[in-house]
Specification:
This protein has about 300 residues and is an alpha/beta fold. It has two domains: about 1-110 and about 270-300, Quinone Oxidoreductase, Chain A, domain 1, CATH 3.90.180; about 115-240, NAD(P)-binding Rossmann-like Domain (Rossmann fold, 3-Layer(aba) Sandwich). The chain contains eight helices and 15 strands. α2 packs across α3 and α2 (about 110-125) packs across α7 (about 245-260). It is globular.
């Protein structure tokens, strides 16, 4: 098998080694795709040398071997879920961290971990039919959130993003309206879902949240302190922390997300805009960092780009 590991800042190497059989409770998964996530950018860009670091946690693929004590799975099953070190040809994963990819859904168009994160955050946001809903930030996670919100039959679903290409894609994926942040400031919504990960985006989302409405902070905020206006408190706004560390909650949310994919209410196909082979993981991270025109998400495909 081969895997990619970071050996210094912005530099990875590909290692070849004999296959390791899956341990008790594990299955071996041949990787179809593994998503490059912004949460891994610091580990890639800021590596200090020394011990190499294996990255990759967004996995979909096919089971090639079963460890002892694994029941209900078969070799050849298409799966998705939660892994570690998934920038690899094959990775051993606890069977309980996986769910089956629905029939008729291409395994190379599924990334279970981010779908689970988005659906779990939305599950605590009180979405109901007939509400006014805004999704602020139409990147990869935001466009998943937009599609999932559309499945709750909102009266109005608005996508907010400064990038015209992102707004155009949101319209295709179910938004009733789209606008730039500066054009949304006079409006208010029953549920606002933030997936920008920026201070400016979070501030915009707060301004759009109506009195006694809900603001879900789902963006990955890792670039410094964040502030929320105390006015949100005076308006009686409910704040939802879109993160959870609990795997059972993620798995329940992933099950819901896969059901939406099976029903053709959620798709990642137009969001996976760039693919790199295992030997070019650094190029994938550079694409994520630079975000060229049309970029939404880059995945590692061990079999080739």
């Amino acid at each position: 098998m081969r895997w990619s590991q970071v050996v210094s800042a912005r530099t990875s190497e590909t290692v070849a080694a004999p296959d390791v059989p899956p341990g008790p409770g594990e299955v071996a998964v041949r990787t179809a795709v593994s998503g490059i996530c912004s949460s891994e950018l610091p580990a890639w860009a800021g590596h200090k040398g020394g011990e190499p670091t294996r990255l990759g946690h967004e996995l979909s693929g096919e089971i090639t071997a079963l460890g002892s004590g694994v029941y209900g799975w078969r070799v050849g099953d298409a799966v998705t879920g939660f892994a570690s070190g998934a920038y690899a040809d094959t990775v051993n994963v606890p069977a309980r961290a996986l769910l089956p990819v629905p029939a008729g859904v291409a395994v190379e168009e599924v990334l279970g971990e981010p779908v689970a994160c988005v659906l779990e955050a939305l599950s605590r946001s009180g979405l109901r039919p007939g509400q006014r809903v805004a999704v602020v930030g139409l990147g990869f996670m935001g466009l998943i959130a937009l599609q999932a919100a559309a499945a709750h039959a909102p009266a109005v679903l608005v996508g907010v993003d400064p990038v015209p290409e992102a707004r155009a894609l949101a319209t295709v994926l179910g938004a009733h309206e789209v606008c730039a942040p500066e054009d949304a400031q006079e409006r208010s919504f029953d549920v606002v879902v933030e997936f920008t990960g920026t201070a400016r985006g979070l501030r915009c989302a707060g301004l759009l949240t109506a009195a006694h409405a809900t603001l879900c902070v789902g963006g990955y905020h890792h670039s410094g302190p964040r502030e929320l206006d105390v006015e949100l408190w005076y308006r009686g706004v409910t704040l939802v922390n879109g993160f959870t560390p609990q795997r059972h909650r993620h798995l329940a949310a992933l099950s819901e997300g896969l059901a939406l994919m099976a029903a053709r209410r959620l798709t990642l196909a137009p969001l996976l805009t760039h693919r790199v082979p295992l030997t070019e993981v650094d190029r994938g991270f550079a694409l994520l960092h630079d975000r060229p025109a049309g970029f939404v998400k880059c995945v590692v495909s061990p079999g080739g780009a």
